[in-house]
Amino acid sequence: MSNIPKIVTERMDYLQVCMESNKHLDDPAEVIDLIDSVSKFWLILSEEDKDYIHCAQHAIDESMEWNV
Q: Could you say which of 5, 8, 31, 58 is the most buried, measured as most Cβ atoms within 10 Å of its Cβ?
């Protein structure tokens, strides 16, 4: 159970890398899978992480370039 925060941090860090490199435009399925893999921990995510996921999902849905 103690590995969960580490897993969440690693996945959120990788999501940030993916979004900043606009990988969601080239391979949205991989980024969606990544979001799904971290969203299962929704109850323990910080508000900041939840907001980031919402913004990332919006960028994927709208095929928007990530300029944050």
A: 31
